[in-house]
Amino acid sequence: MNDRIPLAGIIGSPVSHSKSPRLHNYWLKTYGLAGHYIPMEVRQEDLEATLKILPKIGFVGINVTIPHKERVLALADLVTDRAALIGAANTLIFRKDGKIHADNTDGYGFIENLRRGAPAWNPADGPAAVLGAGGAARAVVASLIEVGVPEIRITNRTRARADVLRSEFGAKLVIYDWVQAGNMIEGAATVVNTTSLGMVGKPEFRVPLDGLTPKTVVTDLVYTPLQTHLLQAATEAGCTVVDGLGMLIYQAAPGFERWFGVRPDIDEKTRAVVLGA
Ligand code: NAP
User: Fold this and answer.
1) Is residue 1 part of a domain?
2) Is 56 a catalytic residue?
3) What's the pTM?
4) Residue 1 has pLDDT above 70, yes or no
5) Cβ < 6 Å from ligand 1: which residues?
6) Which of 40, 95, 131, 212 has the highest local Cβ count within 10 Å?
7) Per the domain annotation, does 84 fall within a domain?
């Protein structure tokens, strides 16, 4: 067992678009580590069997993406508090004792990216305005609460999904109707787009942005394109802006460390590698 080359990878469907293999294989090469990181297309009906076989053939862990992020929680032996709170896992560790440990590092990636991109950002500065209530929003909301943001305003095209978040995450969440999204931004210290609006191939982000001021920190989870319409408008309004690529990179670091034993440094070269430059 011990002379096996450690393997990691990402399971999902579809998975071919994932930038994670490029990132992890770059880190393996940079640190001169033995190992491989492989994208694996896994259908829903094959998930359970896949999780059983991977540890036996040399896998030390995997990342998990759509559509398996929720279901892997039920198949894991141990689930971190933050993964349980978010209701999804993106990182699995296959332990030597045979147990599967499930974690969610999306919130960590989100906050780390925000802190690095906007060093003056202070969670206590005021309310955060979150657009969207999908899977990514759950991780964002959980992490904003964890770092002490006093109020989280949230709006979603389908209001019922925002209501569910409030019932799960509690009274710090204040729900706005989607048509009130522009008003919600007024007076917010932090604005986060967690919808897919503005992404290549999706409808444009058209929420009124008159409420932005130079004090607002604005971040977009969409990173294709890197400079979204929201970030362009925020830059023009004098805001501090943070693009979404860093979240993708920072969420990957804890898994890489657990699997391969080195905490990777993240710099401009890392960003360029992920962008394929
Ligand atoms: P999801 O669970 O499918 O949620 C999609 C969200 O977008 C929902 O709130 C949805 O509202 C909203 N939406 C979609 N089309 C819309 C429209 N035409 N008008 C208004 N709202 C619309 O997806 P997710 O996993 O949360 O991902 C959301 C985005 O974040 C994606 O672009 C994804 O690539 C990005 N993301 C980035 C990172 C990163 O590392 N930077 C990590 C995770 C996700 P409804 O509920 O009304 O459908």
Assistant:
1) no
2) no
3) 0.95
4) no
5) 106, 132-137, 156-158, 161, 194-197, 199, 203, 221-223, 244, 247-248, 251
6) 131
7) yes
